[in-house]
Amino acid sequence: MEQYGSFIDRMLEILRKSPVLHIGGGKSITLKNIRPPAKTLSLSAEAVVANGGEKPVALLFGPENGAVSEKLVHEALKEANLRGYTHLYVIGVGIQSNARILIENAINMGMIPATYVQATPDIMMGDLLKNMRSSQIFSVCGLPEVKLHTVKPKGTDDTLKYQVELLGLDVLDPVTMDIDKRSGNNVPAWFLDTDYNGLCFHVCQAFFPRTNAWDNLKRALKGNYDESVWEHLAGTKSVPFEAGEHGQIAVKVIDDRGNELMVVKSLTETKR
Question: Which of 252, 263, 21 is nearest to 120 (CA)?
């Protein structure tokens, strides 16, 4: 508990020094009167949005060394709603897919609106914060856009297979606040879990579309390889795979700032 309290105190100090949250669409808010809430069960802080009608908002900080969980968001939403806050801002260095879905659907569930704000991992590195621009500490991040396809059986193999295609990713520039729509072949890396269990992401296939290192790697390996190997590694379409017992896949994209952005899809959403 002492370590958790220390982390909360550090996050409060960081927010007071850099109170601007970039919330997407070229918009940002500035927090003031940032403080710990009284007698809270699950919330980390409360504040007032400057020029926001002096209405109080609630803040939830994710774990220091982990992703924000669905349970954590659910408890915070319930408490923030009961206590009359107008908005819940969830701040973390990572978030589970179900937690992200819960945040995006909070209003549809009769709760107050909620927003996930990505914190750069550098905030965990102490003195580095002094050399960073405040506009780069907290900002929203996009989700990968993927499409599922079915693959027709070939020959005597009548097993239905699936294929995932990475279409692209919306990337926010935290300095200019512009949204850059990147195509799937212009991301540093993406990974596929062909049978995601909702808890642990297992890399089944890995791709590195945007890299200029392939020629150097080919020379370093000093061997002859089919060009299709390199095309696959730099591709945006997965190798066909069979459905797993969980009936869903997960795609994780690494963006230019090192953020891990994950989306989960059920195989029932497959485009034929």
Answer: 21
Q: 2-139 — its CATH code?
A: 3.40.1340
User: How does pLDDT run across 206-264, given as a tens digit for each residue?
Assistant: 988 876 556 666 666 666 666 666 677 888 899 999 999 999 998 988 877 667 778 88
Say yes or no: domain 144-269 is CATH 2.60.40.
Answer: yes
Please list the helix, strand and coil fractions of the chain in percent, rounded to the nearest 5, in that order: 30, 35, 40
pTM (global) more than 0.90 = no
Number of Cβ atoms within 10 Å of the Cβ of 62: 24
Domain extent listing, the chain: 2-139, 144-269
Report d(CA 157, CA 55) in Å as an integer: 62
Among 256, 254, 210, 257, which residue's Cα sits nearest to residue 233? 210
Single-letter amino acid code for the residue at 191? F
Q: Strand 144-151 relative to strand 161-172: parallel, antiparallel, unpaired? A: antiparallel
